[in-house]
Design goal:
60% of the residues lie in helices and 0% in strands. By secondary structure, it is mainly α. Helix 6 packs antiparallel against helix 7. The longest helix is centred in the last third of the chain and has 18 residues.
Length: 276
């Protein structure tokens, strides 16, 4: 069973890993029957119910209701995105990919590219993930989740410095977004700046379980990242992670901000839109 391509740090202990969780696992939908019956008579309410089901992890239930919705109200790009998301989460990447590809030129282009990026990331296709997530961010540049996923995918590929801009943008756009702050703290650890990472986590009052997960992810990602940062920074990061204490910055290491709202350098020129 393939691992779920969730590229953001989450707070629930069972979902803490940046790429953890079991795709295809059945989850009982926590939706009241009365709500389902009422929604079936109202298109907007029914569509909202489908989104609620997916937010709660009831992807199999949402697939059944997507079929029912289509019979009652017809098809739409928004409905197809929900279907593709559910198929991806239940392990049918081939069908999900086909649906996403058919939606990359319309109003649902941003979520379509995002879905393609998550599929590529799950397959460890780093180049494909970056292309797709770059396109998602280009289509919806203020989406914190897309920025965070792009940054995390770059970290997974060992591209620490390019990950700085999207992760910084996500943190500035959502200064109270725990996932965005956690990802930026992870970037700081991987760039050899453990003291700054600690300051970020302390200012955000991250719970111990989340902080432990950030360190675990840094240890996991440190090896592929080692070739993307100066050796001195990598050594500093290794020592800091082992002791979980602030480290002295390397001279040429990327310097994270003193505050979550400090200004960051603009991102590097994005690649041309290419289907991964």
């Amino acid at each position: 069973m393939k691992t779920k391509a969730l590229l953001l740090i989450v707070l629930a202990p069972a979902l803490l890993a940046g790429c953890g969780g079991n795709r295809g696992a059945y989850k009982q939908p926590p939706v009241e029957p009365a709500l389902v019956e009422a929604a079936q008579d109202d298109r907007g309410m029914y569509l909202g119910l489908l989104k609620q089901m997916q937010q709660q992890g009831a992807y199999y239930a949402s697939l059944a209701h997507i079929d029912a919705f289509r019979q009652r109200f017809g098809d739409s790009p928004e409905l197809r995105i929900l279907q593709a998301n559910a198929l991806r989460e239940t392990g049918d990447d081939a069908t999900a990919t086909a649906i996403y590809r058919g939606l990359t030129k319309g109003a649902q282009a941003a979520p379509a590219w995002h879905g393609l990026g998550l599929i590529a990331a799950a397959a460890r296709d780093h180049a494909g993930a970056r292309l797709a997530l770059d396109n998602a961010v280009r289509a919806d540049p203020l989406n914190i989740a897309y920025l965070g996923d792009l940054g995390f995918a770059l970290l997974q590929a060992g591209q620490v410095e390019p990950a700085r801009a999207p992760l910084a943008k996500a943190a500035e756009l959502g200064p109270d977004n725990i996932r965005a702050i956690s990802n930026l703290a992870l970037w700081a650890l991987l760039s050899g700046q453990a003291s700054s990472a600690e300051s970020m986590m302390q200012r955000a009052n991250l719970p111990p379980v989340t902080r432990s997960e950030i360190y675990r992810l840094a240890r996991t990602l440190r090896q592929p990242v080692a070739t993307a940062i100066p050796a001195a920074a990598a050594t500093s990061s290794t020592t800091a992670l082992a002791a979980q204490q602030p480290a002295i910055s390397a001279t040429h290491a990327p310097v994270p901000p003193g505050s979550m709202l400090d200004r960051f350098s603009p991102s590097s020129p994005t690649s041309q839109e290419v289907t991964p």
